[in-house]
Description:
By secondary structure, this protein is of the alpha+beta class.
Amino acid sequence: MRKALAIIILVGLSAGGVYSGQLGQGTSVRQYFESNKIVAKEFFAAQKLADDLDSEPLTGDIYEFDTRSTKRAFFYSLLLPGAGEYYAGSRIKPFVFLGIEAFIWSRYFYFNSKGDSGKKTYRNYADSHYDWTVYRQWWGNLDSTVQDSFSHDLPWDDYNNTVIRNHEYYENIGKYDQFQIGWDDIDDNAYPPPFGDRVLSSNRELYLEMRKKANDYYQNANTWIMVSLGNHLISAFDAALTAKKFNKGRKRFSFNLKSRDFGGGEVPLLTCTYKF
């Protein structure tokens, strides 16, 4: 809601009226405006007014009380924690939220790096202790009805000749019993379930422990991402409240100097606009 109050600075002016005070003897208001640079370039926002005073009124902002938008503060901190608080006038909380965010991401990169290191370790271990060619030979000697009883297979290239060492490969050789054949401490004549006993070799068991440890590091890294999202949301709501507190008790009004044509003469008006 907006309420405006207009105050005429110079009274007793009519079309072509003359003021003998500050304007000088025999000087009209129009002439006064045209003869000062403050009208043309410095005080008023539109430079064009000096050339065509009749087509466009003279306008210039004198003063406006500063306020903060709660929406802007919210979205600033939603993008970068602390930015909305800084916009809203706080000089302490921005560093608090930004410091928390920096700490969160330092933990994320720490655990993610540990996960990458762990993944490299367990993959190197598998490459040293698991021979997929042994599994391939064993698999090829099985009857088709026996093969159908197993649910998984290793990923192969387009020509079905070479195994692809991707995430599926490293998961399958440790997770499923049918791939126990291929670990270097397992007899390749031992049938895995459902036709044989479940055999967990020491190498396979150690491999699973190494893989679980690496995955736990990745899970911790993902947890810190969720903490970061929470920090963004908390900072965003806090920024909106900070902006609201900043605006509380402030009179949201502005003064504006304008000119109006009254009977052919330019009359300056001082306008006070109040928003509530």
